[in-house]
UniProtKB/TrEMBL annotation:
This is Fatty acid desaturase domain-containing protein. InterPro entries: FA_desaturase_dom, Fatty_acid_desaturase. It comes from the Eukaryota. The chain crosses the membrane at residues 12-36, 100-125, 216-235, 283-306. The keyword Lipid metabolism applies. Pathway: Lipid metabolism. Residues 121-423 form the Fatty acid desaturase domain. It is a multi-pass membrane protein. GO terms for cellular component: membrane. Its main location: membrane. It is found in: Membrane.
Length: 469
């Protein structure tokens, strides 16, 4: 279910309309009945909330009255053009440096994973998986190196990790199918940011958890489980759903009757009620199965023979255990750096879509994104370069090095025009994100009258642009 406005509230929580509430309550009644019965824990009682008043601006929104959308747009476009024009060999050298760091983590992890369960292997393997996705695949699949990298057969959005299983295995091997992730993330998320159609809108995706009539402690336990499993439980099946949807639309085929395309598809929904877009076998054989079998069971297979040769017992199973623990850690690492980018009670939501790279588009990328600590390659590496989320959403197809250059300049532009620019510690953002997930806080809705006003300004600007051609 997806809602355009706030619907419920309790004395301490504001609830906004993911699909887990029904089984959470059943699960915990069966497994920990004392939690539900305990009178020591607070249960949330939902009541209708008052309609959202868009006629008045809050104190922290007074900047909107004097905001010049056209001037802000011109400054952002000018900076984006300059950054893109100046990309070149420096950006390629920086990419090679980050690839080297990522590969070194992988080499350390793979070389040590057969020697008992150990933190060196777990951290190395986890960091390799995390950075291969968030840094290398992410920015390449966006086209960040299309124009500046000399190797067009690999470092290009239309080549990297797609087209064959061999490319997926060599370039970016993870739970998510690269083609599916490109559709879900690069297109749907980036160009519907914090709108109803954004597939990564945390507040909407967790609506059932937010509204579940269970103690808050139960919700926190669910979030903890989600943190270490979300890539395969939610992200892989849901990105594949988006790929299937895109193919239906491209072929002008109707969406299955009774299906809401905005609803998230998870492992739970596939196993319990099935998916109208693909079978359980297709999901396993095409998306999840190859990574599960190769990464966790075939990759460590040589250690069986190495262990026998050197007389070291259990090298294979030590490796499997380390890979499993690394999987939990890399899920958590990814959650911290990815899920927190656009969630919090200081992040805005929007009712209607907008034209890509219009004034409204640029403003929304700033108001619905947050940056983290930044400034050195090591800090940025540990964040997967997702700490430049504002800059990345303004110009998705730039290099990692360009975002380092852009951040202070974007902050200056925002200060000049009075636009809030949020930059906080990533762990504080985890707290804010979890508050949204469990329903103890809610995101802000951008004032409707100004949202419509800016869309009208965009339409006029686009009409003038076309008339001038």
């Amino acid at each position: 279910r997806r809602s355009r406005e706030p619907r419920f509230r309790c004395a301490q929580c504001v609830f906004l309309p993911f699909s887990f509430g029904d089984w959470i309550l059943t699960l915990f009644r069966l497994t920990v009945p004392w939690v539900v019965k305990s009178s020591q824990l607070i249960m949330c009682k939902l009541e209708p909330t008052a309609a959202y008043d868009t006629s008045k601006l809050a104190k922290d929104e007074q900047w909107i009255e004097k905001f010049d959308l056209a001037a802000f747009t011109a400054d952002v476009k000018r900076l984006g053009d300059e950054l893109e024009k100046n990309q070149g060999e420096e950006d390629v050298r920086h990419l090679r440096k980050m690839v080297l760091w990522s590969n070194m983590c992988g080499i350390i992890g793979f070389l040590t994973m057969g020697f008992g369960v150990n933190p060196v292997a777990i951290i190395g393997l986890s960091t390799f998986t995390f950075t291969r996705w968030t840094m290398i695949a992410h920015h390449t699949c966006h086209g960040g190196y299309d124009k500046c990298h000399p190797n067009k057969n690999k470092w290009n959005r239309f080549k990297f990790a797609i087209g064959s299983f061999w490319r997926r295995f060599n370039d970016w091997f993870d739970w998510m199918m690269p083609e599916a992730w490109n559709v879900e993330h690069n297109n749907r998320h980036h160009y519907n940011l914090s709108e109803i159609e954004d597939p990564d809108l945390v507040e909407n995706n967790l609506v059932d958890l937010r509204e579940a009539p269970v103690p808050v402690i139960v919700k926190y336990l669910f979030v903890l489980i989600n943190v270490v499993t979300w890539k395969w439980f939610y992200y892989a099946p849901n990105t594949y759903k988006e790929l299937k949807l895109a193919r239906l639309r491209r072929q002008n085929q109707p969406i299955p009757e009774g299906v809401n395309p905005a609803d998230a598809v998870t492992i739970r929904t596939v196993l319990t009620s099935g998916s109208p877009f693909y079978s359980t076998w297709e999901l396993f054989s095409v998306v999840l199965g190859p990574y599960l079998l190769i990464h966790f069971f075939l990759t460590p297979l040589p250690l069986t023979f190495i262990g026998d040769y050197f007389g070291i017992d259990n090298m294979y199973w030590s490796a499997v255990k380390n890979l499993a623990f690394a999987e939990l850690l890399t899920n958590a690492h990814g959650f911290v750096a990815v899920v927190t980018n656009h969630a919090g009670d200081d992040m805005y939501r929007f009712r209607e879509g907008c034209r890509p790279f219009s004034g409204s588009f640029y403003l929304r990328q700033v108001l619905a994104s947050v940056d983290f600590a930044m400034g050195t390659d090591l800090v940025d590496f540990l964040h997967g370069f997702l700490n430049y989320q504002i800059e990345h959403h303004l110009w998705p197809s730039l290099s990692m090095r360009s975002y380092q250059k852009a951040a202070p300049l974007v902050r200056e532009i925002c200060a000049k025009h009075g636009v809030p620019y949020v930059k906080e510690n990533v762990f504080w953002r985890v707290k804010k994100t979890v508050d949204i997930m469990v329903g103890t806080s809610s995101m802000k809705w951008f004032p409707e009258s100004y949202e419509k006003k800016y869309l009208e300004i965009d339409a006029i600007a686009e009409a003038k642009k076309r008339a001038a051609k």
